[in-house]
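Lecture notes, structural biology module. Today: joint structure prediction for complexes of two components.
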Amino acid sequence: MAKMMTPAMERLHKKKRYNVTGVSSPGREAWKRLARNKTAIAGLVIVVFLLLVGLFAPFIAPYDYQVQDYTKMLQSPSAEHLFGTDNLGRDIFSRCVYGARYSLPIGIVCVILGLVVGGGLGVIAAYFGGKTDNIIMRFIDIIQAIPSTLLCIALVAILGNGVIQMIIAIAAGSIQGMTKTCRAAIFMVKSNEYVESSKSIGVSNLMIMLRHLVPNAVGIIVINAANAVSANILTVSSLSYIGVGLVSPTPEWGAILSEGKAYISAAPHMVLFPGLVIAVTVLAFNLFGNGLRDALDPRLK
Amino acid sequence: MVRYILKRVFYIIPVMFGVLVLVFLMKIVMPGDPVTELLPASASLEQKEALRDELGLNDPIAKQFVDYVWGIISRGDLGTSYKTKQPIATELMQRFPHTAAIGLSALLISQIIATPLGILAAVKQYSWVDNLIVVFTIVGASLPSFWLALMMIMWFSVDLGWLPAMYNGTLSGLVMPIISVAFGSIAATARGVRTSMLEMIRQDYVRTARAKGQKESIVITNHAFRNALVPVVAGIGSALGALLGGSLIVETVFAVPGIGKYVTDAVTQRNYPALQGGIVFLALMYTIINIVVDILYTVVDPRLKTTFVTAKKRKTKAVREEAAANG
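The predicted structure, tokenised, for the full assembly:
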């Protein structure tokens, strides 16, 4: 391969600028398509913005999220308290700012975990086929028999309340979807000649899976992962809302909403704003996910 | 075909057995001693021990499991609730109609509204109608169902006073729970129908149908939609799972005495037998529904039927074809 290169090409190759032939890689093409999609980029910007808000919450929030001020209970939104105050006089805007540290990062971490475990199972099932596939898929059938929200509720009930417990429960709930998606995606690329030729020259199974199968199926997997994040964000806040998972005084968005329910007629801002924040976050991820779908799967355009 | 259906139906048995094992494993790792939750703090050690014996908690795990499974098979007995001391199966049966009413009406409503929306969007792709529907599907899928429920309570119950904020056993009490559960599903289904229709409209047979001068309405309904329906029907199973999940959450908002509320209460009260029973019950219902959807799927997609032609038939057909080929 290196012999066929001109000296100029070789120099570029050493500088890791592989694209010397002028042929763009599929990944680069997809990125170009994504960058042209304004709504997708808007979604991505909002997601990054919210992650930064969570990271720098102490600098952004005007008040401490747990300081109670009994002289300022259930105040409507004002310049002083952008989203108003709650029944204990806490600033809802500050609580929502700190809330960015929960649902969104948890949603992302769960997808990564779910991908590693569920996706791994799916790849193994599809690659080895036969008995291995059978055993894994029968196991998935069992998990699938329990609606995923119910599975998450049950797991949180067993593991207890807390961020780590929540992550494990939701990741476990998303395993079956990931397994099925990855299995189907790998099946599509498995019969390509490069797999057989790799086998014939003695490449290990693990190498074939990681270097040849997964990169070629990555489009479908990424699209599904993006959708899974928004689903997970909704699950985190739903569970917190019904009082399992992250409960008050944790400023998780669903938990804030749950506190507000009792004051829905006296202080509607207590349920309006946290819900809007959840909706905007999920919307941003959906927009980004749609853009990814269009970029990675041009067939659907 | 019959064989396929039987096979699917009998498959319930190993799946449910797996669910039972899973649920039992959860029980083993569950922290906390149910006896301390059940008895007052002043209870003596003997009293605790007596209760443990009575609940069968001193038996070996394997025996507990066999007893539990045998109770379900022989008597449909899911155990006794720690909280109410009632048989869990009875409690679940009383509550199931509420959850089923919400879930099934939400499914029906979402299909009825979403299908025409999806077709309309696909037929008028890139028009303002399409754009509007696409925006609706994206926004609709982003709203948390419980928040939508609260917003509706705010407008229709608190401000306008049209509908009851809490479920009161009447039909009007079910309106808001159903809408809040169905909303996300409408968005998701409309989107699915649109994507599927767009793919079908580009197929060769649709062009052929148009070329032979078929009326456009028939091209859309008979040629494109019939085929577009296949992935949509396949999605009903998972849509129903989502609807059930939504119902579990929304029941808490409106205090609907359904299975969702039952399970949530069981979690907060550490009433494990009730949670266990709820999971087993819902898993059974969900599995049955999924099998029905699978069978429906083969009815909608005639191409699939050929897959289930028995080996014998296939052989005779091959022999016949060979004979025909040989002249």
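Point to remember: Chain B has a mean pLDDT of 82.
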